[in-house]
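Q: Joint fold for the lines below.
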Amino acid sequence: MNKVFSVLVLVGVPLSIIGALMHWSSILMFIIYCLTIIALASFMGRATESLAIVAGPRIGGLLNATFGNAVELIISIFALREGLIGVVLASLTGSVLGNLLLVAGLSFFVGGLKYKRQKFNVYDARHNSGLLMFGVIVAFVIPEIFTKTMSKSDTLNFSVGISIILIVLYLAALLFKLVTHRGVYLTDNVAEDRHEEEEPEWGKWKALIILAIATVAVGYVSEKLVDTFHTVGEAFGWTELFIGVVIVAIVGNAAEHASAIIMAIKNKMDIAVEIAIGSTLQVAMFVAPVLVLISLMFPVSMPLIFSMPELIAMVTAALLMIILSNDGETNWFEGATLLAAYLIMGIGFYLL
Amino acid sequence: MNKVFSVLVLVGVPLSIIGALMHWSSILMFIIYCLTIIALASFMGRATESLAIVAGPRIGGLLNATFGNAVELIISIFALREGLIGVVLASLTGSVLGNLLLVAGLSFFVGGLKYKRQKFNVYDARHNSGLLMFGVIVAFVIPEIFTKTMSKSDTLNFSVGISIILIVLYLAALLFKLVTHRGVYLTDNVAEDRHEEEEPEWGKWKALIILAIATVAVGYVSEKLVDTFHTVGEAFGWTELFIGVVIVAIVGNAAEHASAIIMAIKNKMDIAVEIAIGSTLQVAMFVAPVLVLISLMFPVSMPLIFSMPELIAMVTAALLMIILSNDGETNWFEGATLLAAYLIMGIGFYLL
Amino acid sequence: MNKVFSVLVLVGVPLSIIGALMHWSSILMFIIYCLTIIALASFMGRATESLAIVAGPRIGGLLNATFGNAVELIISIFALREGLIGVVLASLTGSVLGNLLLVAGLSFFVGGLKYKRQKFNVYDARHNSGLLMFGVIVAFVIPEIFTKTMSKSDTLNFSVGISIILIVLYLAALLFKLVTHRGVYLTDNVAEDRHEEEEPEWGKWKALIILAIATVAVGYVSEKLVDTFHTVGEAFGWTELFIGVVIVAIVGNAAEHASAIIMAIKNKMDIAVEIAIGSTLQVAMFVAPVLVLISLMFPVSMPLIFSMPELIAMVTAALLMIILSNDGETNWFEGATLLAAYLIMGIGFYLL
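A: Joint structure:
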């Protein structure tokens, strides 16, 4: 798998540059950009993982928690600069739905085909449920309803306030998990010290250099990718919404999808769930509010107001995950339920 | 009880035919039809139960799961043929509310008067909670919100897609429960092998013949019943909505109401809960989508779009049941809570 | 603390009378009235507590359950008489949010700074979750949606029906907790017989006399307080909504806030949770419906219809509390989550 990504990067980055200079067709370039970003993202993920092992669990957790969605953050910043607020909100929605329903659903389903009952830490499940309820439901629903009659500037002020509260609570959650309550909530299947045992793939400096180069490359390709949205959307009859919810979300999260499923097949459900739900929370409580704050520097600011279909899709997805994960157990049918929900929403966004 | 139903059938079926020929008043005929259907439904229930015992737990579970709401399905098909989409959606709502709030509420309440704490399998409770969240909340709320701005044909396409997903997941749930995970989630009070112990009331052929005749008779009477709705509604000042939510739901589910309560009094809460919540899921995930697909053959097709009061009533009822049933225990107060919710919704639908 | 309240009463009551006669500025009087009511409320609380100990746990529970929100009831009745329906609904919302998010949030947070994990009775948690789901979600959401197309008189009839059902179920909950299932659901950390051990602060007659005088005084000052709302609102640019949600709610519940936090610091989480959630349920299931019924005697009747922001704030707050409290454990981060939700809603109501 890693070899495939290496080849993809070695071929994709030059092609991205050459194709742009030679004005190849937008649709071809769109495909090249997407594949290149997926491959670069896998390098960023491996570099972050190596650094996390070197740095120890606390700093490592922080690194994973901030760099985990770096690709999506970068694509979104370029989209914001172009004023494509609808695409950004849609891709945030797509990330939440993709992680909660598609990544978790595939992990539960595939893992469940091999094992009758798979368990993960029930305390983590409850902790995550509380955060999903706060980050996805309270923090996204309240502005939607309250700003119906608000002026545009009040709406933006409210969004900024909520964004700051979200980021502070996200950092507090890291403090809780990595410092004050580290190791407090353990169950029998202790997977806590996995980091200590592991050998980093790359040394500290090699990882840092790869991370830096890959980030710059992702930035370059992302900017080009955003420029193709308009033409590609017209060619395939896709709306901004569908591009954001499905395409950007899949490209931005492809690496996570793969590793969550691999962990589920190894019966390491703690990690699979952490990737799926942890990623969701990171998007809702860190990436989204950071984008709101960054957008203040661009001509068009982005309020934290999703469209009703986006909001309701995220809310019902969060409720479904809260109920399914609450007992710290999974099986193939719970996976199938999540996938069915994703399918329903996917069709809905396509028809919108 | 069985004797009463036998007499009711022997008197009711001839009266239904004679009254129709002699053009008796619609209100009288409405009452005769309702009572006859309730009595016929009890025969269908007994025949299905006998067949289920003969066929063994797997096929038996499938039989119960598909024939359990046969009466309601038949009435609804005739209403669909008349184009009474509002009545059908309302009666589906009524079935969901009636099973979740009235049947379960009465069972919990009456059972709780005799026993301080009644327990049922907590794994079943969680499995059912996940399905309620999917079948009632995700699958019904998403189309409501997404189709606000959709064209009529897209709305119907979306409904068809969701219906197929619902039916597939319902069948997957049967596969999970009856095949792959049969007996995996057991608790102390094992009521699993009850079927094996029981003697069927009727032999295989007798049960099949009774089932066939009763189904034909229910079909005949249902068709007549639907014709009286308009006149009866005008006479009593009832709307289509109220007839559907309350009258059709009670007539269509009367047999289940009785057996759930009897099981609760016998402290067999596993079965009482299975009837109440199982029936709800069957209506939401099988009867409703099957009716959407069948309606495609009629002049007026039925999308899976409920009115807002119907939707919100089902969603809040499902949430209430999820929270109350989550611990695998019931008492009289939980029953009273469900009944209070039913009362509030009943008054609401009457005033609408 | 008690001494401060004694001084506040001895100074505040005369100042309230003198200031009213001398026509002091509305803003000064508003502050005097608020502080006096907070101090009087603490006397009512202590008198009720003494009476509850004397009367034994059953009648005591009933006393606490009916007099616990007496101050808020009294302020609201005077506001209703003035036709200030918006203020009353807003102050009910504020009480629900204040108790669920601010009182519980501060208790969990402050208690959690001292203790890593604090436990309370998980059966109480589930019982309360069911009531929150019924009292805040079913009983408030259903009329909101159902009355969208109803006539004004039907809306009022529906509100009255729901109010009666709420009061009956609230009394049934007391019967369940204090009589039929008293002591049935115990966990290890038994705090059940705390009442029996305690010495009442005041004798029966002294407590009764203090309760009577304080109630009359609260009534007098509340009437004056309501008169200042209009002027104060204009002076500070506060809307009726903000005064109701924040000011009235804090003044009316100040005493409870203090005692819940003190209990959390003493690691008596059962009592802290009981104050926070018990108070919420009392407001939703007793104070609110009683006010609807009382309003029928005034020129302007109050339907049980909140504004959308009020409703959604209460619904999401209840869902958040249900998820966080479901495991019978708290920690500082759960407190921080509740406080963050309160902050978001507070900003929202200020900007509205």
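Q: Anything notable?
A: Chain B has twelve helices and two strands. Residues 26-67 of chain B form the longest helix (42 residues).
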